[in-house]
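Notebook, bench 3.
Goal today: get a predicted structure for XRE family transcriptional regulator from Sphingomonas naasensis so we can plan the truncation constructs. The sequence was checked against the plasmid map this morning, with no discrepancies at the termini. Length recorded as 209 residues. Pasting the sequence as submitted so the record is complete.
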Amino acid sequence: MATRLKPEQPTLGALLRALRARNGWTLKEMSVKSGIPVSTLSKVEHDRLTLTYDKLLQLSQRLNIRMSELFAENDSVAEAPVTARRSIGDVDRAVRVNTPNYDYYYLCTELRRKRMIPVITRVRAKSVEAFGDLVHHSGEEFIYVVSGRIVVHTEFYDPVTLDTGESIYIDSNMGHAYVTAEGCDEAVVLGVCSSAEDGLMDSLLNLHG
């Protein structure tokens, strides 16, 4: 007898379809309520498009949904065993968050209940003074410098400079900040954040205000 694979966790598109079904909304009605065009919602529901952070925030506020539900990193339902999942990372389809210090590109956001959160970051902050207070959040993170040079400031260690191809692994609850090194206008890093605790995505989103 062939082994039957368990269904994957729902995508953002499936979540929106289920929300529409529960409320008996047409796509047009959801568009009016959320302020997001019908064509965009249709593409999201068919998993052909994701939404930027600003649009997800708009959706959560107008439809009264928690942001973490849209990222689906938390769920009150017990997690079912996963037998096979995959997601192709694509910057063009990433959820983008722009801040004074960084441009974040959250990857693979259609994959639900991830234990790791991959993100590509463009680092623009020039100094820790310009950066502001060191940030803290739950879990651990790995940072790999794709291009440029960065200086990593942490709460308990002297600053360290990382060149292209170098990396660092830290406890994220230790205050930390990444800034560009002298002579470097912008750096690109690949980060992977992970936590055994619930609420990692909420912690990261709260960093963005």
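DSSP finds seven helices and nine strands in the chain. Residues 1-8, 73-78 have pLDDT under 50 and may be disordered.
Flagging this for group meeting.
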